[in-house]
């Protein structure tokens, strides 16, 4: 679904807002369609200089006349920012609201906006900064297929997107893909340390480990085979890979990953209850 001609406002001009704005520009959205509200003058200057975008300190300027408004401020600032907007003469029920504020539930957003507000909550992850993100979205009852389609298009400009059937699934998304990059970074750290421990120079271990993880992920995405099938193909009987996999199995590698995702999911639920 095209966003051509749609006016898009951002409340907050941090790294994720910049990633989304950059993705929109790369997908063909004109700079004149995008407006960013950001309180730091130096950050506004960066965004104007880098992307030729309109950027200023007034949130109302980003909302006024916008068809989509992306809430890209820290979770603790959302209620204050929306309350300030409600105090002004703005048609807050007109735009589609898209929130990337982690842990802020649809019910919280609905309470802060007019009753008929169409709201999509999204959970992107940090690889969106290089347009390789994984994002899940869920719309409130006021949204229709067109609204959610526009949200999907927005996040597809910075990676892949999945629409969740219910908001509760976003906690599981947070535990898997939201926190997942950190698990991969930790695995990379361990792989590099292990390479050094068996005699590789640190620089070589880092170069080989990063490329190995990148290449394996790219192969998993493009080969048309499941990860299990790809693993089996490189696990020759009596070979080195099986020896390594046996050591991982003996250490409970799968169970450790399961516990990590479950712990992050539980914490997401707790944070949502506090929002």
Describe what you observe in this structure.
By secondary structure, the chain is an alpha/beta fold. It is 54% helix and 13% strand. It has helices at 15-26, 41-51, 59-63, 75-86, 106-112, 145-156, 169-178, 180-197, 202-222, 227-233, 240-250, 253-274; strands at 8-11, 34-37, 54-56, 68-71, 96-99, 118-123, 133-139, 159-163. An 8-stranded mixed beta sheet has the order 3-2-1-4-5-6-7-8, with helices on both faces. Helix 7 crosses helix 12 (253-274) and helix 8 crosses helix 9 (202-222). It is elongated and about 70 Å long. The mean pLDDT is 96.
User: How many strands?
Assistant: 8
Mean pLDDT value: 96
Report the radius of gyration as a whole number of Å: 21 Å
Strands in their spatial order, largest beta sheet: 3-2-1-4-5-6-7-8
Number of helices: 12
Oligomer: single chain
Structural class by sheet pairing and helices: alpha/beta
What order do the helices and strands follow? EHEHEHEHEHEEHEHHHHHH
Residue stretches low in confidence (pLDDT < 50, at least 5 long) are: none
Helix content range = 40-55%
Share in β-strands: 5-15%
First-last Cα distance: 32 Å
Shape: elongated
Biggest sheet record: 8 strands, mixed
């Amino acid at each position: 679904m095209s966003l051509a001609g749609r006016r898009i406002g951002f409340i907050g001009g941090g790294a994720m807002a910049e990633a989304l704005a950059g993705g929109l520009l790369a997908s063909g959205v004109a700079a004149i369609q995008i407006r960013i509200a950001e309180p730091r003058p130096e950050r506004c200057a960066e965004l104007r200089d880098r992307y030729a975008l309109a950027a200023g300190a007034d949130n109302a300027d980003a909302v006024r006349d916008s068809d989509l408004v992306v809430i890209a401020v820290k979770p603790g600032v959302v209620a204050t920012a929306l309350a300030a907007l409600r105090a002004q003469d703005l048609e807050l029920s007109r735009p589609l609201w898209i929130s990337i504020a982690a842990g802020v539930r649809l019910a919280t957003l609905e309470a802060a906006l007019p009753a008929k507000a169409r709201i999509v909550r999204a959970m992107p992850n940090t690889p969106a900064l290089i347009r390789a993100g994984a994002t899940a979205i869920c719309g409130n009852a006021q949204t229709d297929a067109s609204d959610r389609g526009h949200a999907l298009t927005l996040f597809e400009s910075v990676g892949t997107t999945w629409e969740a059937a219910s908001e509760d699934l976003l906690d599981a998304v947070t535990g898997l893909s939201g926190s997942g990059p950190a698990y991969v970074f930790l695995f990379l750290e361990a792989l590099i340390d292990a390479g050094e421990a068996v005699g590789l120079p640190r620089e070589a271990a880092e170069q080989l480990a990063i490329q190995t993880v990148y290449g394996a992920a790219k192969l998993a995405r493009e080969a048309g085979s499941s990860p299990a099938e790809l693993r089996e193909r490189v696990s020759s009987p009596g070979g080195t890979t099986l020896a390594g996999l046996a050591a991982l199995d003996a250490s409970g590698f799968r169970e450790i990953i399961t516990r990590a995702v479950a712990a992050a999911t539980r914490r997401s639920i707790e944070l949502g209850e506090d929002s």
